[in-house]
Sequence to fold (349 residues):
Amino acid sequence: MSRQRSAGAAQTYAYVPTPAQIQAARVTALMRRLGIGSIDELRSRSTADPEWFWAAVVDDLDIPFDRRPTSILDDSAGPEWARWFVGGDINVATVCVERWAADPATADRLAVIAEDESGEVRSLSFAGLADLVVRTAAGLRDLGVRAGDAVGLLLPMIPEAVAVTYAVARLGAIVVPVFSGYAPSAVAERLADAGCRVVVCADGTWRKGRVEPIKKRLDAALASAPTVERVVVVEHAGIDVSMHGERDISWSRLVRRSAELGGVRHATSSETPFLLAYTSGTTGTPKGAVHVHGGFTVKVASEAAYSMDIGQGDRLLWVTDMGWIMGVWSMIGAHAQGACLVLPPTAIS
Fold:
């Protein structure tokens, strides 16, 4: 434990980087590149001139836009309606997966390592993840998912959750993660509010030492979520589940198609919605916050790079669930840097 003082008040930190770590940090490299002398100067200038700062971040992190923005910020309608990276086209899947898979220097690097409660470990390279994403996108298109559709995600932290999220982004659709431990009423409330047409769920998962039947809870929820037309079931816990006629399809069947059939990616602008993340609902009706391809991707990438000092070859593990914002944050935070996402056994009670 290290103790530091500022402005007459004591501040206690659990961790203080060494001078050598500070000099090697990515945020320090950014400051050198911009000719900034101190972290306080960087903070001050970033708030005084946000367009200068965020243009510098995009260049420093080499974030690929399919079409470069014509301007960084338009807040003419007020700060609450600010539009970022105006005129630009960008897609989360390209930034986080496709560019690394297309580069021979990074294609074989680990993108995902996952360990389940039995101790089984699965891993995917960026090339392997890209292939799974495209096949998942092809399968979802077969189910009728199109740009602007909402796709519910009721999955623990497993590789399939990563693939679905990027596949939905690739299609220009909107991913709606729901906490895998919610009761049917809470699941239904979010799926109905978002108007989800398709839901991807697991058969079950482990929680507090026992198997929780996720698919069974979803079946009960769908009585109050009438917009859901199709359900994809990931065989995760290996338990028997009811499959309802033409509505339900197994994950193994969904991704059986050739990757070539999902090769077309929908063009998405900086302001195209990507994620609808709901609040917990503990103090009232859960509220969905809309996140878009441009602003969310660039902001999360910057937080991972400059606040957490994540770079290529690093590994990131965050104890969370896909239903919380940190599930998606950890995906984009790691993969926007070309780093590896580590998925632990279920850890949220």
About this structure: Residues 133 and 163 are 5 Å apart (CA to CA).
